[in-house]
Design brief:
two-stranded antiparallel ribbon; mainly alpha; two-stranded antiparallel sheet; 4 strands
Length: 444
């Protein structure tokens, strides 16, 4: 089965693209919105000394702030108005999604269709504001704890920081929704990908500079480049991999019409959990380092320093816990977002069944068994992708900019965007064929 990119190259010519005016408008709108996002990452937060903050930020390079800085395209390092990026909204979406699977009231709202989706989206926005205010307040307290970073510490600075950072996050949420509705691709995902890709040229230049200076060998530089291409290809292959469970619909009669039986399949993705397990695992493991850096001079610093040493990136304990957390969150998130019992009931309701398996509870058990097996492979794939850059960083002098999480995000978002462009082009071609057939009908 060809990918969306392969279909786009094989079936769509450039003349069709040049005639798709609506698609070109959507692409230009998306690019313009991403430019606005990038400009916002250079507007500094009022009331701080940029040079003093740069010095303080160097101590956070191994903490969770470094990961957020990567997602925001350097906005955290510059402490810009978009420093929180759209991550509070992503966290709120995940929380609401998880709660809608375990809370009966939210689950009932979720089953209401489009109206329920709008209500859950509104709850997500409210939770985004709460998370943004909480994180912004923590950032304000952390900035004040650093000598010389804040010009005038106090409640006024804290309130202004909370309002500015929360406003920046909500603006990005609105901008992402505009991209989704008026542009191409998922707006929130594209904003995160734009932040990651924006720093790629600098990282590549640093790698080549190390090779030019002789700090690392030319063979190692070439090996890293080849490894990146191989890993990207492997991610594309695994993200498109799925287990197809055959589904049969028997022959049925509706009114006076008899409908023949149909055969279909239930696609189960190999990686159902997506990029959630690496993000959660990285956040939990990097949190002690961040707290220890901010808690300098506190009574708990000794304990936190010991914990930070044990959980240092590249260490054996860090690697083991990283893999264990990825596997745990892969199974946990998959079990939360996919319910085999509901799937089996829906199949039974519409008359579908798996050949050789009884409808109902036996079908649910069968689907759950398959899902467990492919989740094992999915968790192993995520662990391999995320641990490979860590191993290379530990046993060489190269500080890789692209980690496993960032690669997964970039590849997934790119595949989704290309698929949507392909869909828009196909829709444009179908509209052209319909108009031509109507014109021919009128001439006759």
């Amino acid at each position: 089965m060809a990918s969306a990119a392969e279909q786009l190259a094989a079936n769509i010519n450039w003349s069709a693209f040049s005639k798709a005016e609506e698609l070109k408008k959507r692409i230009w709108f998306t690019l313009g919105a991403l430019v606005v996002f990038r400009l916002g990452t250079y507007i500094p937060l009022p009331g701080i000394d940029a040079d003093a903050f740069q010095t303080a930020f160097l101590g956070q390079k191994q903490g969770v702030l470094d990961m957020f800085n990567m997602f925001s395209g350097g906005a955290v390092q510059r402490m810009a108005v978009f420093a929180l990026n759209i991550m509070p909204y992503i966290s709120a979406s995940i929380i609401i999604q998880l709660l809608s699977s375990v809370m009966p009231s939210l689950e009932a709202i979720k089953k209401e269709g489009e109206a329920g989706r709008k209500i859950l989206n509104q709850y997500t926005r409210y939770l985004t504001v709460v998370l943004s205010l909480f994180q912004a307040y923590g950032i304000a307290i952390g900035l004040e704890s650093r000598t010389g970073v804040v010009a005038d510490p106090g409640m006024v600075f804290r309130l202004s920081t909370m309002i500015t950072l929360t406003g920046g996050t909500m603006f990005l949420v609105w901008l992402g929704e505009q991209i989704t509705s008026r542009g191409v691709g998922n707006g929130s995902s594209l904003i995160i990908m734009a932040g990651i890709v924006a720093r790629l040229p600098v990282a590549a230049a640093q790698l080549f500079e190390l090779g030019r200076q002789g700090s690392i060998s030319t063979g190692l530089v070439l090996g890293v480049i080849v490894m990146v291409f191989v890993v990207v290809t492997f991610i594309v292959f695994m993200e498109r991999a799925q287990r197809r469970v055959p589904i049969t619909y028997p022959r049925r009669q509706v009114g006076n019409k008899m409908y023949e039986g149909q055969s279909s399949f239930l696609p189960l993705k190999l990686n159902t959990s997506g990029v959630i397990p690496p993000i959660f695992a990285s956040s939990l493991l990097l949190l002690p380092t961040t707290v220890a850096n901010f808690a300098q001079g506190a009574a708990t610093t000794g304990f936190l320093s010991t914990l930070t040493t044990l959980l240092g990136r590249g260490g054996a304990l860090y690697m083991i816990l990283y893999v264990a957390l990825i596997v745990f969150f892969a199974f946990f998130y998959t079990a939360t977002v996919f319910n085999p019992t509901d799937t089996a009931e829906n199949l039974k309701k519409h008359g579908g069944f798996v050949p050789g398996v009884r409808p109902g509870e036996r079908t649910a058990q069968y689907i759950d068994q398959i899902l467990t097996r492919i989740t094992v492979l999915g968790a192993a794939y995520l662990s391999l992708i995320c641990i490979l850059p860590e191993l290379l960083t530990s046993y060489s002098s190269i500080q890789l900019y692209f980690g496993g999480t960032s690669l997964l995000i970039v590849v997934n978002v790119t595949m989704d965007t290309v698929a949507q462009i392909h869909g828009h082009l196909q829709a444009h071609q179908y509209e052209g064929l319909i108009r031509k057939s109507k014109l021919r009908g009128r001439k006759r």
